[in-house]
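hey so i finally got around to running the thing on that chain from the lab meeting. sorry it took forever, my laptop kept dying and i had to restart like 3 times. anyway pasting the input first so we r on the same page abt which one it is
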Amino acid sequence: MNLSLDILKNNNRLFHISERAGINEFKPRLSPSYFAGITGDVVFAITENLLHNYLLPRDCPRVTYYASEKTTPADIDKFMGNTTAGHMIIVESSWYEVIASTTLFCYELPTETFSLIDECAGYYISYQPVIPLAVRPVVNIIPAILSRNIELRFAPSLTEIARAVSLSSLNFSLIRMRNAQH
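ok and heres what got predicted. didnt touch it at all, straight out
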C-alpha cells in the first residue's frame, strides 16, 4: 500500500515522518538541533507544504531549497532557472538504494498543542505528548516525492551545493549534513 496523497493536501495539517510503524504516542524529547525558542523537550511536526523534505530516510543527508518573495532573480536563475518545480531536493547518489528500499510512515498529528518555531523550514513544536490522528505508509519514496512537483536530484557530493545555497537568498534546509560524505 502506498501513501495516499489526499492526506497531504491541506496546509492546516501537521505531520511527522518516521521509519517506525505503530507509534501510538509521540513523547517530547531533546531537540536534535539548536533553536533559541525551544526551552525543553519537544515533539516536532512539519507542515504539508514542506513535508517532501522529510520523505526520505531519517539519516539521509539532503539539501533542500525553494524561492520566496525575498529570493533575488539572479538566485532564481542560478538555482531554479532550468526547472518548473517549486522545490528542490538534492541527495547523495550513494543513498539511492537505501531510499528505494525504505518504507516510511506519515503520521498526521493534531494541531492544538503545536506552535510555529521555524517558518522557513515549516517546523512546529509541542511540549506535550501527542497521539497521532492517522498514519499512512510511504512504500515508494521517490514517486511520492516526485508527485508533489519536486525536483529530486542525486549528486556524488553535497558539499558545494550546500555551501552555495546557504550563501544565496533562497529559503533552504541542510538536513543531516553531518552524515554527508566530504
